[in-house]
């Protein structure tokens, strides 16, 4: 890169830092990025992206981050470059340097990387994100943010300490549905909510009784293309099994967060943010089927109690996944038909119902970018202005890249996505122990339950991974 181009990029990124003073700090090594490969956008106007996790979900995330030409991958890191979806990104960006270890990638190319995407199994989100943030890199991390409550709290503190742009990948937060929900709260359609029903239909193998097991899988030959030790990262290293990699790791307590940790980030996210839920004070298991120490339950129903919060009344949130996941809607919220019968609302496989204290009507929403509706539908007409949906100018990935360039802000920074993740992980602990738990919101500890508090902290990291837990 010529001295002139270096100065151009340096000047631009310094101006971006000034434009977002107090939110974004751009250290010196962020100002000398590599020249763009396709030449469509000048290097001075482009974010250089380090990609941690190239296949699987990243097969979509990376193109989304780079769609408008304002971001360009300069480094690919994956523990298995033969996994599903990896080839899509490799073919599109054939000259990008490849690494197996994200620590090596950041050490060797730190001066050329402005931001990183972390799209890996849940148990490896934390060390990759923490190291990148400590080096001044902006970070995009898929949901749920972390594998433990402690890790989520530490990333929220790191966001403040290092002053970087952050985004958790719950894409509905940058959708028209998000703006619609915000308007419904502002205009009082969503008001005095005292109960929320949330649900998710069964999906992964562990929710099929015929496929379940209670012992860790027997070891298999590690594929030649896979670095199994790096895949395990800070978590306990079990013998390799194709049940873990490349897809089904979500079913295991050791590596994933089950259906609640996975889909909950797309289902209760609006409720959590706009009703300012914070953390529950009590969690009660209502139905935990086939609990064991290896897999998440076959079915899981639980209730979380949230205290009054400012103008918001106390609220009970009930979560159901697996069998009998759909809530029962009271007749008063069903639509009366010409023949006098009552029509059930179409709830779908995932979503929420919000109940107002006055019982006049309820609000339903699906997941991700699903819009909200009023039930019974006959009550929607009077709220049609609030129910209007407008599309935001930038999607979730685009808003992250824009914020990295000092233009606007992200919708799910870690102070939002991390707080949501904490709530989800409290629910996961309730699923794991299958017992009622009382939680102190001030101390962020369970009351009189050492086992639950140990799960808050998560297991100690393996040798060689401890340093990432000492950075904040």
TrEMBL record:
<dbReference type="Pfam" id="PF01408">
    <property type="entry name" value="GFO_IDH_MocA"/>
</dbReference>
<dbReference type="InterPro" id="IPR006311">
    <property type="entry name" value="TAT_signal"/>
</dbReference>
<dbReference type="GO" id="GO:0000166">
    <property type="term" value="F:nucleotide binding"/>
</dbReference>
<protein>
    <submittedName>
        <fullName>Putative oxidoreductase YvaA</fullName>
        <ecNumber>1.-.-.-</ecNumber>
    </submittedName>
</protein>
<dbReference type="GO" id="GO:0016491">
    <property type="term" value="F:oxidoreductase activity"/>
</dbReference>
<dbReference type="InterPro" id="IPR043906">
    <property type="entry name" value="Gfo/Idh/MocA_OxRdtase_bact_C"/>
</dbReference>
<keyword id="KW-0560">Oxidoreductase</keyword>
<dbReference type="InterPro" id="IPR019546">
    <property type="entry name" value="TAT_signal_bac_arc"/>
</dbReference>
<dbReference type="InterPro" id="IPR050463">
    <property type="entry name" value="Gfo/Idh/MocA_oxidrdct_glycsds"/>
</dbReference>
<dbReference type="InterPro" id="IPR036291">
    <property type="entry name" value="NAD(P)-bd_dom_sf"/>
</dbReference>
<dbReference type="Pfam" id="PF19051">
    <property type="entry name" value="GFO_IDH_MocA_C2"/>
</dbReference>
<feature type="domain" description="Gfo/Idh/MocA-like oxidoreductase bacterial type C-terminal">
    <location>
        <begin position="219"/>
        <end position="277"/>
    </location>
</feature>
<feature type="domain" description="Gfo/Idh/MocA-like oxidoreductase N-terminal">
    <location>
        <begin position="47"/>
        <end position="169"/>
    </location>
</feature>
<dbReference type="InterPro" id="IPR000683">
    <property type="entry name" value="Gfo/Idh/MocA-like_OxRdtase_N"/>
</dbReference>
